[in-house]
Amino acid sequence: MQLNSDYYDTDFKLTYKGSTLLIRNDGPQGESLFVNGELQDQNFSAHNGHLIGHIFDEENNREVIEVFLGGTDTSDCLIYANGSLIHTHVPPVEPMKTSEKEKMKEKRRRSNLFFPFLVILMMAMIMLLLLPALEEPETAPVNADGQDKEAAAKGDIEVKYDWNYGDWTWTYTLTIPKSAYEEYKTVDRQKIRDYSYYVTDPSDDEYLAGLTDKFKEAAEKEAYSDLDMVTNIIFFVQNLTYVDDKVGTGYDEYPKFPLETLADEGGDCEDSAILLASLLRELGYGTVLIQFPDHMGVGVKGETSIKGSYYEVDGIRYYYVETTSTGWDIGEIPDQMKEQPARILPLNY
Fold it and tell me: What is the per-residue pLDDT across 38-70, written as a single tens digit (0 to 9) for each?
């Protein structure tokens, strides 16, 4: 099933008290408000949706203009002048199918269980310190033992991941310098105009290479095909915890670099998509980000023999991958995404 990849990129004009208001929406390239041809406000976040400007009447009285964007068309917005509504158009919301409701409920349930999970994890760690060492279950060969025991003393972040694929329970332990993690917190997200930057930025390549090397070693030992190895990585990312930006970072829109998502053991849709695309790109697989108006997934380059939904760019098929929860196969796309416009973000630089 081939899907449409035309992304919204529209302008909307409104005349109010003799002044021409122009609202321009360029998706991840930002949104801007012009009054009589003069730029009033601009932002560079794909989902900020709030612009402020002003107009003056013939007596030089000033009115504050506020614009709240929403939907796939720029006309889908609310516009206020000094607090009074002067334009409204709210796009209709299509009812979600029962199966999709259940999947979205599962995603929210995973998010709600995040903090109780942390409490249980802390209690389990205390028990392990007090009780004799227990025999561990058999795990797959991706297990990375021998991590630097001085990590804790240096204040580094050590994270252990567990997920299931095939006949194995896979494990991997990653040590992340706290200084590297905190350095990302100083990056001004408003200055980053394209989500592809989070994938192509080379500063965390060393850590991603260490993780992908383990996947390659495991694939060689298990005689995995390329499809098996890619699917194993997808399962790894899908098993991370879904956490909304507002809950995880305190900000409404805060895209994470891959190393941040690994340290936090999860994030929202663009965070997990950026991480998966980064890992696949590190291994040399063709991949793109697929951006919808309010969601993000990954496209993996594949042959015509693969079944499922894909986007075709320059004759290349990129099969859709959902990253926010388990149970989604390559080429399986949520029903509510099938009719939405999608923008393909290349990662070949």
Answer: 888 877 654 567 788 889 877 778 888 988 877
Tell me which residue has tokens 């959902």.
322
pLDDT per position as a tens digit, 19-31: 999 988 776 557 7
SS3 percent helix, strand, coil of the chain, rounded to 5, is: 35, 30, 40
CA 213, 307, 289, 47 torsion: positive or negative? negative
Instruction: Report all structural domains of the chain as residue ranges with CATH numbers, in order of start.
Output: 10-88 (2.40.128), 139-346 (3.10.620)
Report in angstroms the alpha-carbon separations of 272 from 208, 260, 277. Answer: 14, 10, 9
Rounded-to-integer distance, Cα 72 and Cα 10, Å: 9
Strand partners, 105: none
CA distance 236 to 219: 14
Q: Which of 3-12, 186-195, 208-217, 234-243 has the lowest mean pLDDT?
A: 3-12
pTM more than 0.70: no
Evaluate whether 96 touches 104 at the Cβ level (below 8 Å): yes
